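Box 3.1 A note on notation
Throughout this textbook, protein chains are presented in two layers. The first layer is the amino acid sequence; the second is a token string describing backbone geometry. Keep the layers aligned when reading.
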Amino acid sequence: MTVKSRLSLRGIVAAGAIMLGLGAAGAEPIRIGIANFGEHPQLNTAIQGFKDALAAGGYEEGKDVVYSESHTNFDASLVPQMIAKLQAEGPALMYTVTTPVSQIAKKALAGSGIPIVFSAVTDPVAAKLVPSWEAGDEGMTGATDLQDVAAVMEFAKKLVPDAKRIGQPYNPGEANDVALLEKVQAAAPDAGFEVVPVGVDNVNDIQQRIASLAGKADVIYTPASNLLQPAIAAVSAAARQAGIPIINSDDGAVSDGVVPASFAVNYQQVGLNAGKIALQILDGADPKTIPPMNPAYEDHAPRISKKAMAAFGIEIPEEFADCDCIVE
């Protein structure tokens, strides 16, 4: 072999090594930041659904994607610090869970070039996360947990046939709660209900505020509130003392025998919807062109606790005998 041939071969080998190195670098996993408000079964399920969607789209955890997860134990004052920490890691995308976290992230990441996908947000338009239900915003869009309110009313009427007044506790300071209350008030007349709202802006006031519904409401609907759901056991205890059955927006408390019934959105599907949107963005789509995604009617399901219904002194109507939705 001539010197020229040897040099040529070395050049080819060196070029191959460089290309191999570039390939290895390109194969490094992307990073996604997950900003959660706090540990809660619904929110954790939404995160798992998000990861499942990414995995189904070809992003294997540890190989193609790594997740940086954080939460603030429902302390809104710590959310800016959490977002800043996740941003410093240079994620390709941020997944924000709940309205308060998403609102703070939108302001904190404005102009950063990091796209945001939200979930567990009831009304992103009212929360000013997106301009309308038909489009995303600059660098942000996502999946809602908006319940089919008319279906909730229908379920309430079947579960408590004589009920005419529905009490709804809500946090006046949370956009989700206010938006859902307005939707319930709009849907209630067609379902034959009068809505009796009661504001609760502090967990220490739950017992007193729920007790104030005694004699004023025949059934209580508790929304997917970041204040009320972590304290659902206290809400249920106060409602039981007042003699008012609860229909919850989360089925976990029903399975635990804490709450009589729920008509709930499947948060696995909420997370899956958010993950599908994230896949589009990672593939180059502009978040502004992707409208927020709502759960479909079939993404809801009833659940009834035999134990909790008995504790509230209510018989399960016969029409639910074959619903496959009753737990002990």
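The chain has eleven helices and twelve strands. The domain at 149-264+301-327 is CATH 3.40.50.2300 (Rossmann fold).
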